[in-house]
Amino acid sequence: MAWDEWERLKADAGTRSSSQMQLNQVPNETGAGGGQQGDLKVDQQDLAAVGDSAFKLFTDLGRYGRDAWSSSQTAAKDLKAQEFELGGALDTVQERWEKSLTTLLDACAHISNHMDFTKKAHAGDEYHIASTVSSIATLDKGFDEGTKR
């Protein structure tokens, strides 16, 4: 930036008569007091469906994900005994499958458990909000009765 440009920018800033700092950011469209933060919506049925799907996947993977383990290990041993390099490769594939399967099972369990926790937490929040709102309504009713005299 040239010196002349800097001087011009300073003069322009001075004529705006603003002494506040300005940050470059996206303006808050809902105001500082809050408002809607996004468009993500979820209800208890959505949480339950995700949790149920994760649990079903966990169950099915646990039940069927290792069906080929025994025959793969037998084939790998036989191929190694016959000095085929494919035996070692098959063994490596089986080990990687087991690691991937375990990782996926852990992820499914985590998702299912988290959805159960989230569902219970939101149910507790809903109960708290409903009881607070009903308390306010009762309090308002008492104030209304006091002013009718």
Walk me through this protein's architecture:
This protein is mainly alpha-helical. The chain has a domain at 42-140. The chain is built from 4 helices and no strands. Helix 2 packs antiparallel against helix 4 and helix 3 (69-81) packs antiparallel against helix 4. The chain is flat.
- Estimate the strand proportion: under 5%
Radius of gyration: 32 Å
Described by strand count, sense and barrel closure, the largest sheet is: none
- Overall 3D geometry? flat
Secondary-structure content class: mainly alpha
Q: Would you identify the regions where 5 or more consecutive residues have pLDDT less than 50? A: none
Write down the overall mean pLDDT: 78
Number of strands: 0
Q: Helix fraction?
A: over 70%
Tally of separate helices: 4
The separation of the N and C termini measures 75 Å
